[in-house]
Design goal:
This protein has a single domain (6-284), classed as Alpha-Beta Barrel (TIM Barrel), CATH 3.20.20. Helix content is 44%, strand content 16%. The chain contains eleven helices and twelve strands. An eight-stranded parallel sheet has the order 6-4-3-2-1-12-9-8. Strands 5-7 form a two-stranded antiparallel sheet. A two-stranded antiparallel ribbon has the order 10-11. Strand 3, helix 4 (84-104) and strand 4 (108-111) form a beta-alpha-beta unit. Helix 8 (195-209) crosses helix 10 and helix 10 crosses helix 11 (269-284). It is globular, with a radius of gyration of 18 Å. The relative contact order is 0.13.
């Protein structure tokens, strides 16, 4: 369990790139800004790690030095619900990511589970479950310490609603609950309009997985533009046309005594991560009052 709520970025912030920072410089730069988490992006990897082991270990050492909690986002090219050859290639990509995540000391590898495609939803989900049990066993056999983090997804044709992710966490050893609140908002076409909407999700998770899983979840957050099929585009926190509002989640975090790792996925990664951190502190201090029926997004 995280000892505190941590805030960080999904990848290297744009300003760091302008500074020509190397990947091992990122933990120190994040700490200087007041952040304490970093999600390494391995989203275009294939069947082998695309970072040298010594570079991964150096990143891990710097993260430990600066008390930055590391996670990894695995390859986008994973579909554990597809045909046999697709599933086999997806498992290789996931294991490659887990191997490098272990090198750097990341505690979880986050990934997108798959697509329903032409299969019935239950059939597609069972394919994912079977494949992930095999991946979990391989990770155990290899002695890797990283957890598997199937993520809640934002499009209706993707495996990854709350119930599916909770079932994976119940049935597969070595998993970490990963909730992308923007994805859930978009998947249900603007689900989170008031605090009670998010509270209902938290209550469902707590009743199914228990309070430890709820309080220590790994989170992604951004505002999300959506169409009839769900997620379309990530937006910054100050964009008034889109939701959800972070204040709603902050209230739920306080109410349920949650201490998650929260990764910002907006286009201005570190800037919005710091805004979220400040908002949470203001809710804790009673400077922001968010009523259960107050609609902050329409």
């Amino acid at each position: 369990m995280a000892e505190q709520t941590r805030f960080g970025t999904a990848g290297v912030p744009p300003a760091f790139r302008l500074l020509k920072a190397k990947i091992h410089d990122v933990p120190g730069l994040l700490r200087e800004e007041g952040l304490d988490a970093f999600e390494y992006q391995a989203v275009r990897w294939g069947a082998k790690p695309q970072i040298k082991q010594q570079d991964a270990e150096k990143l891990g050492a710097e993260a430990k030095k600066h008390d930055i909690r590391l996670s990894m986002h695995g390859s986008y090219f994973i579909n554990l619900a597809g045909k046999d050859d697709v599933i086999s290639a997806s498992k290789e990509r996931l294991i490659a990511g887990a191997t490098a995540a272990d090198w750097m000391g990341a505690y979880v590898i986050v990934f997108h589970t798959g697509f329903y495609g032409k299969f019935e939803k239950s059939h597609a989900f069972n394919n994912c479950l079977k494949a992930l049990k095999e991946v979990s066993q391989t990770i155990k056999d290899l002695g890797l310490k990283v957890k598997l983090g199937p993520e809640t997804m934002g499009r209706k044709f993707q495996v990854g609603d709350v119930d599916e992710i909770m079932t994976i966490c119940q049935e597969i050893e070595g998993t970490q609950l990963v909730v992308d609140w923007g994805h859930l908002h978009a998947r249900d076409l603007g689900a989170f309009k008031k605090v009670d909407d998010l509270r209902a999700v938290a209550e469902k998770i707590e009743s199914t997985l228990g309070s430890v899983a709820l309080r220590s979840m790994h989170c992604h957050f951004s505002k999300i533009e959506f169409s009839s099929q769900g997620e379309r585009k990530h937006h910054i926190l100050d964009e008034p046309r889109y939701g959800p509002e972070f204040e709603l989640l902050a209230k739920v975090l306080v109410d349920f005594k949650m201490q998650p790792t929260i990764i910002c996925e907006t286009p201005i990664l570190d800037i919005d991560a710091l805004k979220m951190k400040k908002m949470l502190q203001q809710v804790l201090d009673g400077k922001i009052s968010v009523g259960s029926q107050q609609k902050l997004f329409f």
